[in-house]
Amino acid sequence: MSFVLRSAILTLFGVLAAVQPTSSLLAQEAESTKTQRLPLDVLVIAPHPDDEVIGCAGIILRALADHRRVGVVVITSGDGYPAIAAAVGQKDQTEVGPADFLKAGALRQSHSVRAMTRLGLPKEDLTFLGYPDSGLESLYTRNGSAPFVQLFTRKSETYGVTVPDYHSLAHGNPAPYLKASLIGDLVEIIRQRQPKEIYVTHEGDTHGDHRAAFWFVRDAVRDANFQGDFFTYVVHGAPPVQPPDRRLKLSKSQAETKQAALVDHQQGTSPVHDQLAATYMKPEELFWRARPAPEATQ
Predict the structure, then answer these.
(1) Which of 161, 191, 157 has its CA nearest to residue 177?
(2) Which of 279, 292, 150 is nearest to 230 (CA)?
(3) 105 lies in a domain?
(4) What is the percentage of the chain residues whose pLDDT exceeds 90?
(5) Residue 196 confidence (pLDDT) above 80
(6) Are 264 and 115 in contact (CB under 8 A)?
(7) Residue 117, C-beta contacts closer than 8 angstroms, at least 6 positions apart
(8) In sequence order, what are the residues at sequence separation of 6 or more whose Cβ sits closer than 8 angstroms to the Cβ of residue 52?
(9) Residue 260: which pLDDT band, with cuts at 50, 70 and 90?
(10) Who has the most CB within 10 Å: 17, 66, 209, 296?
(11) Radius of gyration of the chain from its Cα atoms, rounded to whole angstroms
(12) Structural domain count, the chain
């Protein structure tokens, strides 16, 4: 085992041992959520840890430099990625189990914490919802009242390891993996934080979780009666045919910071994410306007 990977694994286990979401920790974190009710200028919503950097690091950096308040919401913990679970557990992918996926989720949460700290985002403005990675599309489209069970972690309710999940902090208990739960959490956050701009992955993104993230946010924007600017960004697949409604060219300093934040998301995942920064580092960020979902018919 390489020294770098050994250090990453030891760090992860130290984090897991030190930050289990005990009742006292939940109480402390719940107290800190009071500061999270300050209005936002920009709200970035990402399906997984790393999408917030890939799609919107420049937006975050520009807004913070202009003394605007930014919030970042990560819908899943990225705990449904067998190759990363195998890297973290030092196993073959055929041997990984729920505990390995939970450790992978904890590691990926810690990546987002590190990357957002690098960008200058205050800790209280980073929120994890703890919904099922690789399950958002099914969560949105499925029928029935039974909670969805994530294939890899076997979880059926929101949770957090490195950082407790939003619903547990706000309500004292986790939320079941249901479409209404996720929309409800997003509506609460939008109403509490009153952002002027919202960014989420594009509905044409080729990753199922990314498409579904758009559907969930589109519905939440409608239900929260959001009146601000609603933008989307593409992570996987070709961009839309129509020209972007907003382009942000990164300065040299912004590009260097974004590059470093992408590298933060590579730590402890070798060889899976070795090319993350090289693949997703672009000189500008592109955004397309979106509309809220239409009102549901009676």
Answers:
(1) 157
(2) 292
(3) yes
(4) 84
(5) yes
(6) yes
(7) 123
(8) 44, 46, 60, 72, 74, 112, 115, 116
(9) very high
(10) 209
(11) 18
(12) 1
Structure tokens at 157: 């309710």
- Structure tokens given for 64: 């913070």
Round to whole Å and give the CA distance between 75 and 77.
Answer: 7
Render 137-152 in DSSP notation, one character per residue.
Answer: HHHHH--SSSPP--TT
Overall pTM surpassing 0.85 (yes/no): yes
Is 295 inside any structural domain?
no
C-alpha span between 137 and 216 (Å, rounded): 10
The H-or-E segment that residue 200 falls in is strand 197-201
243 Cβ partners below 8 Å, 6+ apart?
none
The H-or-E segment that residue 233 falls in is strand 229-233
What pLDDT, on a 0 to 100 scale, did the predictor assign at position 36?
A: 55
Mean pLDDT for 19-41 is 58
Encoded tokens for 112: 């987002």
Tokens 């890899």 map to which residue? 152
**Structural domain range at position 10:** 3-289
pLDDT value, residue 297:
52
* Domain-located, residue 115: yes
Between the CA atoms of 148, 144, 181 and 184, what dihedral angle is there, to the nearest 10 degrees?
A: 150
Q: Residue 184 domain-assigned?
A: yes
Tokens (6 digits) for 257: 């910071």
Q: How far apart are CA 237 and CA 204, in angstroms?
A: 8
- Three-state DSSP state, 215: helix
Of the candidates 149, 181, 141, 151, the residue with the CA atom closest to the CA atom of residue 165: 181
Q: For residue 295, what pLDDT band results from cuts at 50, 70 and 90?
A: confident
